[in-house]
Amino acid sequence: MSTKSKGNITSPILIEACKDAFKKLNPKLMARNPVMFVVEIGFVMTLLLSIFPSLFGGESNRGYNLTVSFILVLTILFANFAEALAEGRGKAQADSLKKTKQDTKAKVIQKDGSIKVVDAADLRKGDIVLVEANDFIPSDGDIIEGVASVDESAITGESATVIKESGGDFSSVTGGTKVISDYIKVKVSSDPGESFLDRMISLVEGAKRQKTPNELALSTLLVGLTLIFLLVCTTLVPIASYINVNLPTATLVALLVCLIPTTIGGLLSAIGIAGMDRVTQFNVIAKSGKAVEAAGDINTIILDKTGTITLGNRMAFSLLPVKGVTQKELNTFAAYSSMHDETPEGRSVVEFVVKAGAVKEGLKKEGSEGVEFTAESRMSGTDLADGTKVRKGAVDAIKKYILQQGGKVPIDLENISDEVASLGGTPLAVAEGTRILGVIYLKDTVKPGMKERFNELRKMGIKTVMCTGDNPLTAATIAKEAGVDDYIAEAKPEDKIRVIKREQAEGKLVAMTGDGTNDAPALAQADVGLAMNTGTHAAKEAANMVDLDSDPTKIIEIVAIGKQLLMTRGALTTFSIANDVAKYFAIIPAMFMVAIPEMKALNIMDLDTPQSAILAALIFNAIIIPLLIPLAMKGVNYVPMNASKLLTKNLFIYGLGGVIVPFIGIKAIDLILVLMGIA
Amino acid sequence: MDFLQISVVLVLVLVLAIPMANYLTTVYSLETTKQDRIFGPIERIIYKLSGIQTSEMNWKKYAKALLFSNLIMFIISYLIIRFQGVLPGNPSNIANMDPILAFNTAASFLTNTNLQHYSGESGLSYLSQMTVIIFLMFTTPATGLALCIAFFRGVTGQKNIGNFYVDLVRSLTRVLLPLSILIGLILVSQGVPQTFSSTAAVTTVEGAAQNIARGPVAALESIKHLGTNGGGFFGVNSAHPFENPTGFTNILEILCMFLIPAALPLTFGRMAKNKKQGWILFCAMGSLFIVFLSVAYFSELNGNPALEKIGLSQENGSMEGKEVRFGIAQSALFTAVTTAVTTGTVNTMHDTLTPLGGLVPLAQMMLNCVFGGDGVGTVNILMYTIMAVFIAGLMVGRTPEFLGKKIEAREMKLIAIAILLHPLIILGPSAIALATEMGTSGISNSGFHGISQVVYEFTSSAANNGSGFEGLGDNTPFWNISTGLVMLFGRYFSMIAMIAVAGSLLTKKRVPETIGTLKTDNSTFLVILLATVLIIGALTFFPVLALGPVAEWLTIR
Fold first, then answer.
1. Which residues of A are catalytic?
2. pLDDT mean over B67-92
3. Measuring CA to CA, which residue among B218, B201, B249, B290 is closest to residue B14?
4. Which residues bind Mg(2+) (chain A) (predicted)?
5. Which has the higher per-residue pLDDT, A44 or A192?
6. Taking CB atoms and an 8 Å limit, are B394 and A570 in contact across chains?
7. Which end is more exposed in chain A, N or C (fewer Cβ atoms within 10 Å of the end residue's Cβ)?
8. In the beta sheet, which residues pair with residue A380?
9. CA distance A293 to B406
């Protein structure tokens, strides 16, 4: 399952969304969205008027009422469709994750030790299940006994199996994954409906979804605006009646619907769901919408050095001979020492020498024998066919070894190794026989592109803090090379939580990634905690997001998604409100032109007739919703830059655009209506 | 010449606002300042006599103190004007005011509105003028200032919100009393009467007998403008030669009413430790003001086409209802200023302004944030600022924050209420008035102008301005009760909502500013703020303005 295919909208989703759009007309569901609920009431009123034209007193034009009510119901359907589409896509993603979970049987170990087969759905927290080779793991849980290789491709898309065992950092398993070999006993850690997947599914289901804090605040504003315009429209009737202007109910409803923020009101829910969808597309499960929103506000990201900022593999960076040894000599013996070493470090030494010009074939491998690294000797190497012993290892270990062999330690060795350490590298000494030839400078390499990404973050005003167990010198070098803003050297797990608390005390929001049990308190303390799926259950439980791919750098993307979600909301709100200017100039003159012919002066768009003007505004108001669905689903284009530039750009597109577009749109629709002879 | 006059006045406002802003910042400082050495002893006596605890309050206590003290003032004021006929200090034998008019008058002066449904010279005794009118003219701007400063403290994250009574007392002892004594004396030098003698009976040059009303005018006149009050000693207000005798006093009165409202945004900048922020607010309000002033000036200068048609020369502009000694420029400026800062004093009759000229005061009061009255105006523009931050702030990809404080659902709810309230109490009652006989019977001009008259009356009440389209026959139970209620709602609901916002913001942790934070002190934000005010504040009233002044303008041009 590639991440790409998950984001696609397939035709079944479209068809389902169309059906749901009608189902959502149910007033009970509509009442959740006050803005669109007002439109629905307007629809019912105009529909009644087209059946009984004199229902609210006076005569009214049946055809006109019917047209208005038709456009209104379209407006609602478009909005419902947007929500249903976002929901459908999210559900499809969730379903594909969930599929494996269904129909799974679980072998529950009873108190007396006997095994009972039950449906996975009936498992309760604390149940202990046996999972054997080729069984699906029925629920999230912790291994309490056994070791097994587990295929997690169903959720991560990674085909390589992973080893899971009780105790330690690899004890947690996810429901829906499959045991390939051996057996394990798993203690179920969640009740039905509470697993990560279930929680994620609830984030993308419109009806059950909890609104995020900012969404709530925005809804409040939209309701406020709706009430204001409701007031404006209802008071207009008696005020106009004073000068004997009678306003048809359908026209008033049209004015109201045009003025209330239907564009953002109709798309708000879709934007929120689509934001969650985007997180899921990244193979990250968010446990709450709040966390995704908080991601946009992050001020500080705490990143582990190894595996996140650096590749985690130390590579040969240069070979430094001691006095009296040639570079070529050191190169050759360094290659010999690593000939049988299959660790990434070892291979990198051979590669380095080959690149430096020594021919690989020149290494006489035949007859030589590899010497494995042991914790006791702290070195590895090769016994060549001619009996020469070549070793490489920690500098002090090699020193000790040479002295034992009766050799001498070169005087400049210490200087060289200190220098390597001060540069952030790991020095390995190379010995041949009783001589020490020089030092291999192993360096932890920063992942390509990290520096640029940290630069981007800096542009957004986000500070990065690197956490590492290295000594301060090494840490400083890597920090400088990677371009992080700050680092904590010789960090212990409690240091992370200390830093988080310190930053939070300054009012900052902090994000971090982690996988071990000792990361759990910090993950819980952080505003956005991203746990690795390979991590322990405690870490996953404490975090508010879980990355199925276990890629710690994803935290940066999560921040971008959070920002994009907020920006999309802001952009469409601005657009929606800015639209009102043109709508006023379309409808107000149209309303009064018949009674007060001089009002024509306000008809700056030169719309054909009052009716065509009102219908054009109303149609524009309806079709702008489907036109903006792609934007709502995809999110506004987000390029990292500072707030001022971002604001100017978005203000220009969505603010100024929001004022101008409807003028053009309404005029165009008016022309079309005239051409078609409808109005 | 007109431009020179206007610009000199506006430049003077700017020049005076800066030191005033500095002064106000010190007045309300929560720290001990040099000013305490001068005013401290008097204030300590006041605190001691009235049993005031000067410890800090939370927002609820502050709001309670504000409402409670205002309620007491209301009751005392009502009783005095209700029974002024039998009380001393009534040399001209003015009768008791009837209960409903007394309610309206007490509400009007308590809310800093000063809508007058009575005529000053014949409706109030000297005792009422001094103990009710002048008293409230001091305490209501002091209340407004206190609220405004408490709001500033909350938004800018000072250590606490302050103490209402201390703020109220300091507003009086350090700002309003010293300034009004000074201005009062200057006004006396210009010929404004200040006397306890009763109405003078004189024989004119033509030999006719005439009663000329007089009284303690100068004392009222100075605080009337300084406190953005606006209620005149005489019915015709500052068009009366005893209230506004010379061109100099006209300018002085404009400066007085503009002084505090223009200084407050700058005070805000100083309290926020970001002077630029203050200037952005000032510029937002200033640019709206310049636009409105220009519309008023040019529409009056162009004259009234309807009068031109019947052969009245409009060469010098529309002079109907204006004082010849002030002319178009001083009248237009006074009109624009009095409705911008919601004073409500008039030197020209707003009812006779040309349609677009009349739209200006109406629109400024509808926005209620073009400088606005003492205290409340700056609070209103800040309310729009928070709203603008909320909408635009999202566009930088962060949840909205203003001066480091997150704007969340609670604040938005309170602001939505405050923003909704203003059109509600203008449009709601206007609709009732225009649809019913009790409302329409007071209208002196039917048609579009009638709509303007009614809407103006409620807008003036809601914005706590107090000026009127005086053609309206408004001393009826309907008008007295409805405008009385509108004035009270207009003042206290939004005050409580805003102080609640301040209280809520104060408790929030300050988010440090980074390069990713929305800047609210640059020209981009100025544009956003203006757009928010115009789209949300002004477009709400577009339909009713279209039916009133705009339709009138379109039909007579």
1. 304
2. 93
3. B290
4. 515, 519
5. A44
6. yes
7. N
8. A392
9. 13
